[in-house]
Structures are given as C-alpha cells and as structure tokens.
Amino acid sequence: IQMTQSPPSLSASVGDRVTITCQASQDIKNYLNWYQQKPGEAPKLLIYEASNLETGVSSRFSGSGSGTDFTFTITSLQPEDIATYYCQHYDSLPLTFGGGTKVEIE
Amino acid sequence: QVQLQESGPGLVKPSETLSLTCTVSGDSSSLYYWSWIRQSPGKGLEWIGYIHYSGNTDYNPSLKSRVTISRDTSKKQFSLRLTSVTAADTAVYYCAKGNWNDFQSWGQGTLVTVSS
Q1: Among A43, A97, B67, B113, which residue has the fewest nearby CB atoms (within 10 Å)?
Q2: Closest A-chain CA to B41
Q3: Contact B45 A88 (CB under 8 A)
C-alpha cells in the first residue's frame, strides 16, 4: 500500500492553522498513525487510529479521515511544532509510511 | 517508561553483513512488538520488521531474503542482521517498541554507512 502525503513542505506563520493530507493507494479504513520528527530526533507517535491523540500530546494536533483520504491538522502553529510529519498505515503488512511533510515557520 | 539504545558498527563494507543490537531498559514486557525501522534520504522511513516477545517475526518483503531479527530476553536485547549490504542500505537505523501496528517508543537511531 502506497501512502502519498501533500504538500512535501509548507511554510506558515505562528498561530496559523496547518493542514497536511495523506492518501492511501487503497482503502485502509481508519488504520492510520501520524508521527512528528523534529530535526536530529527520532519520530514520535502523535495520533493513532486516524483520530486518537496519544497520551500527553498537545490538543493542537488532530487527525481525521477514513478509507483512502486522511487529514492532519495543527490548529495554531507554534515554534516547537517545526518538524517533519509522517503518516503510516497498518491495514496490512508491510507497514509503510508517507514521504513526509516538512513544516517550517515563515 | 522504556528506553531503547541502538549499538553496532557505523561502517560496513559492501557485500558484508550489517549487525545492530537494541538494548531495552524499563518495560520490556511480553505485550509488545520490537521493531527495526530505517531512514534514508532516498527512501524515507522504511519498516524492516519486528519480533514479538514470543519469538514470532515478520519482515518487509522487500528485505525478507536478507533480514533476520532475533532477541535475547535475558539481556533485554533484540538484534538486526542484514546480509549482502550495498550502498542503498546506508541509513539511520532505529529500533522501536509498540504494538504490531505502531511505534510508541524509539531509540535515538544509529547511522550505518555502507562503503569500502
């Protein structure tokens, strides 16, 4: 299953609403996770099962979608949100990731 | 709180075998799956495979013929072995803990370069 993220990168201002999309090459129901990877660090699980926030993760982050089309949103971009965000499906093996979306501050 | 730490050579020659170990501190219970994931500029994040506490394994078909993941529960370690490496295997290799379908905790990653 191929996971396609868009855009590959984006630049936004502090306080902006940021939206990232992830499209699966086939129906994956809601079997989707989102990760955040800050520069020089390992990825961190933010959202599981498309829309469930991992414990301790800021409520600025949210996810939605099912089937083939998914959305990840940061409601009010903060400087500490600078990172690359990845989606990952788990409909079947092999587990695969999207190509990532790099989020920068304008 | 679990912590994971990768260790192993940072440089491997082409056609040789890459071997890495992940040492787990904290919760290493039988509930979890222990994975290897790699990240290269050309291919992004790639799941290599996992091993369950029971010893059951699953591998990415793209690497299956070259990969072995094993574990030593007494040492709280699990290992990756990748044979016949080429430059395309140059990447940062991460170990991670989670359910079969996610990666909840990650090691810091270790860069492995394949070069003569």
Answers
A1: B113
A2: A99
A3: yes
Query: What are the DSSP calls for A20-79, one per residue?
Result: EEEEESS--TT-EEEEEE-TTS--EEEEETTTEEPTT--TTEEEEEETTEEEEEESS--G
B46-58 average pLDDT score: 95
In terms of pLDDT, which residue wins out, B44 or B92? B92
Query: Amino acid identity, residue A63?
Result: G
Mutate to test the interface with B, among A84, A93, A102 (most CBs of B within 10 A): A93
Residue entry with tokens 């491997």: B12
pLDDT band at B30 (very low <50, low <70, confident <90, very high): low
Range B16-35 average pLDDT: 89
Provide φ and ψ at B89, rounded to 5°.
-90, 0
CA A16 to chain B, closest CA, distance in angstroms equals: 27
Q: How far apart are CA B77 and CA B59, in angstroms?
A: 18
Residues of A with Cβ-Cβ distance to B108 under 8 angstroms: 41-42
What integer pLDDT is reported at residue B31 of this predicted model? 80
